[in-house]
Specification:
Length: 240
């Protein structure tokens, strides 16, 4: 499908934006850039779900083409990323920081795998780098792993994900989510100041939000800076 056909299909289906995901989208950089340019011209937003492993030149091209938001999967601490991916995770953090500074909405996801990246030292290293590079308001997700293909470690215990969340909160991160666990409380957004439920989610959709004007908490008035404008899509779903 050509970039133009892709964007036309998105419009025909009533989509509000594009997302390039599942296979590492950096492998289709030129195609992605063409999609983003055309989608932005037509008023759609653009997102990338990526391992964040690219040159700064590639990152710059994506921003120029109209990237609005990126989720970056951090595979682990420095050692585990080197060992399992043969990659330098500092380049991933460098790129995350670059996108953040350029005004792209950034979220970080960590697939927590038993025996690979679930030890306290490594989780703390990730949370500290997250805070240093992206600040306390950038959301972080700890996702549950399930065995697949040649990897046979058991699924991540919920207690491990809760431990990761506890470390993130200790390190001062304000928006911490647990994924692949299908527990609504872990997907919702709560006010970092008073704990009031401000955004209620159900898997991929926002089902309700209780933010006051200016995206402030209705209970204590704290600013909730993770959300942009509240929009209601043509299908009636809200996205934030
Ligand atoms: Zn509050």
């Amino acid at each position: 499908m050509s970039p133009i056909e892709f964007v036309e299909e998105a419009e025909r289906l009533g989509c509000e934006g594009t997302s390039i995901s599942f296979n590492e989208p950096t492998l289709m950089l030129e195609w992605s850039i063409d999609v983003f340019r055309e989608a932005r011209r037509r008023g759609l937003y653009n997102t990338f779900v990526s391992n964040g492993y690219m040159t700064l030149k590639a990152a710059e091209l994506l921003v120029e083409a109209g990237l609005d938001a990126i989720n970056i999967d951090v595979k682990g601490g420095r050692e585990a990323t080197k060992r399992y991916c043969g990659a330098d995770v500092d380049k991933v953090w460098r790129n995350a920081e670059f996108f953040h500074r350029r005004g792209v909405h950034v979220e970080i996801t960590v697939l927590v795998i038993p025996g690979v990246n679930d030890d306290e030292k490594q989780l703390r290293e990730i949370c500290q780098l997250h805070r240093e590079k992206l600040g306390e308001d950038t959301p972080i997700h700890f996702n549950r792993y399930y065995p697949a293909y040649k990897f046979h470690a058991p699924p991540t215990p919920l207690s491990t994900l809760e431990k990761a969340k506890g470390i993130a909160l200790e390190e001062g991160l304000r928006y911490v989510y647990l994924g692949n666990v299908m527990v609504k409380e872990y997907m919702n957004t709560y006010c970092h100041n008073c704990g009031f439920l401000v955004v209620e989610r159900d898997v991929f959709s926002v089902v309700n939000h209780f933010l006051d004007e200016g995206n402030t908490c209705p209970k204590c008035g704290a600013k909730i800076p993770i959300v942009g404008e509240v929009k209601v899509s043509r299908r009636g779903y809200m996205w934030l």
